[in-house]
Specification:
The structure is a homotrimer of 279-residue chains.
Chain A: H1 2-17, E1 20-24, H2 30-39, E2 43-46, H3 50-59, E3 62-66, H4 72-88, E4 92-95, H5 103-115, E5 120-124, H6 125-132, H7 135-138, H8 151-162, E6 165-169, E7 173-176, E8 181-184, H9 197-210, H10 215-235, H11 245-258, H12 261-267, E9 270-272, E10 277-278
Parallel strand pairs in A: 1-2, 1-3, 3-4, 4-5, 5-6
Antiparallel strand pairs in A: 6-7, 7-8, 8-9, 9-10
Chain lengths: 279, 279, 279
């Protein structure tokens, strides 16, 4: 009930203000993020030239930083835009794509977090384990790593250490701000079979943060929109007509553009994990 | 009648020559521009390395320059490609994306226009007011700025000053070459809810210019293709089946690839504004 | 029969290992390549920062290098990633997009091939004639150049000289490793009317190589998936409903994600050309 009210407020603010969401992001998924933000009523802008990002983020209501297709030019832009956003009180969402795969990404994110305070960090379990940097936590990490295995502990610990909301996406999403931890049990495996659903989830969280919503509710709503839209998209797939992942992506963007609080009320599955009661 | 003949000539030249359209453009919408140009019968190429753009544009029949995701490397490429195109008599279309949002874009476009002569500049009303740079014109500029408010005057003034065709897109599009000014009353609000329709409009204008069509007719036809295709796409949307903006984009590209002069004859709404008579 | 067994093995290895395919590729088609690799069961990663590509390719099972939107930063990344892949025995697929259009591309590929040994090079006939660099072969080269005209000879000669498999795509695809040459007679003209089908074909070849399949079979299977999926996509187009190239692309990705050996058995048309017998 409480969540529904929070979400309604966020939706209304997005509708009334059409917030500008500044992205510095991967060229692989930039088109998807732009269309997704537009579909939900926001206004996306992608700009990554170091010399203009401070000015651009000053016009924006949220900054989404995604380290896919990272390079040195973008690294400078991330830092300048992130510091400016912090100075102006504009929320920053960090998506540490591929963290753990290369030294460059590991070092950059470590350095970035000493200089910029994000409101939310969203990633998959492998990225979050890499972020935690704890050898103890790394035990048993492999390609089957899922958010169920120690995700609650990692989310809570990282949230406390980094003073922000942590969102770990997977079969079950885990969201924590250190004080309270939630599970989201929406979504469909097809979401992991098209590119960009992680990046778009981060864009949605940025969009919700832009409305002034508290980071924890913004993360919960952003991920719920993705998960529930994935379920709706799958329900519309017609395999008899030969539909597969191409159609699934179209249905998914259809669902984004028609998403309303009613979808959440009908399908939302968010649980506060201490009590395991559905909200 | 006259316009229909002009448009028919342009179409026939595109079909017979499959012109190469060199783009230096944003990574957000490059895929959309490429598919749109292909759908209409052109041949797109995207190349932005300073060292090869002169050679590439020499092979092309038009050059489309889009400053979305601008950076210093691309700025050099814009200038070299633009100068070469001018030297060879190859038409240049400029899309000053986000003009007015940052000093970098403002300064770059101002400098560019002292060195390169475009055939057509296409943008939205905010970008065109920024281009005009007139404080008087800037009064009342805000997010609700639309092409109806002073668009005719700005288009005509800019066309005279910059010696080119100006195309301002919005609810009603305004196209002027300084001597004559037109309105286009096609399109659908959904076109502003997916990314890339502005960029693609510029690509279409480039494609029409490539056919050797006069800039004013190329701009009118390019924007008419977008507006009319948007109407067709919307007419095919089936909300009962849950269709939204994902399907709209698919329908839009369907309409591009099936576009013919017949669509223009059935739906085209171009008015010469002095007389307000439909052509 | 032999081919079917080879293909079945490749499919099974992809399913069981979900190989990581490292791309350094064009921003125009990166999203398409990522979705296509995911649809077939692989795991794509796009990374082009020189400083991290050696590490990234070390994690991968194949490296796909595509010189669309080439720039100097990527040129360094190609060389470092390619050399590392060679050192580790990871197969390299080269897609020399636009070869012949600029001196930069010509010089870069010539230099690259002295330093990196690809397993497969895939391109269209113009690119392959440019690669051959033979004035004699260049006679009669123009926009109507098709793989039927001298393609067998060029493929065989290049394969011998460059010690790799050559795949020339066109109305009929030609694949040769120098010892044996095949034709593939699948596909549909629509495939050349959307962007990225060439790039995606190279990604598919990379995915098949990643499974450990011999380059010649990997090339045959990769191109067969594209050609057959194009036929299936076209068969699902409903022009009565206004469907065109937008829907064709959706159907194509549907077909990718549903592709199985059964599709090949029903539709595959691969001929060993010495004997002209269907395999």
């Amino acid at each position: 009930m409480k969540l529904t009210q929070e979400f309604e407020e966020i939706f209304q603010k997005i509708k009334s203000s059409k917030p500008l969401i500044h992205h510095i992001t991967s060229y692989v998924t930039a088109n998807d993020s732009a269309n997704a933000v537009l579909a939900l009523g926001g206004s996306p802008v992608m700009a990554d030239e170091e010399q203009e990002v401070e000015e651009m983020v000053s016009l924006a209501s949220a900054l989404v930083l995604n380290i896919g297709t990272l390079n040195h030019q973008k690294m400078k832009a991330f830092l300048r835009a992130g510091k400016k956003a912090n100075a102006l009180g504009i929320p920053v969402v960090l998506d540490p794509v591929g963290l753990g795969s290369t030294r460059l990404r590991q070092d950059f994110v470590a350095d970035f977090l000493t200089k910029v305070q994000p409101s939310v960090i969203r990633g998959n379990m492998s990225e979050m384990v890499s972020l935690s940097g704890s050898p103890a936590l790394m035990k048993g990490v492999d390609s089957t790593l899922s958010s169920e295995e120690g995700g609650d502990e990692i989310a809570k610990t990282l949230a406390e250490r980094l003073q922000c909301t942590i969102a770990i996406t997977g079969k079950v999403d885990v969201v924590s701000n250190g004080s309270v931890t939630y599970h989201i049990d929406n979504g469909h495996p097809h979401l992991s079979k098209i590119t960009g659903t992680g990046c778009v989830s981060s864009s949605f969280i940025g969009l919700c943060c832009a409305s002034g919503g508290p980071p924890i509710y913004s993360a919960l709503l952003g991920l719920s929109i993705m998960g529930i839209s994935g379920e709706i998209a799958e329900s519309r797939l017609d395999p008899q007509k030969g539909q597969g992942l191409g159609s699934f992506k179209v249905h998914l963007f259809d669902a984004f553009s028609r998403f309303s609080l009613k979808d959440y009320q009908e399908r939302g599955k968010i649980y506060e994990i201490q009590s395991s009661r559905q909200l």
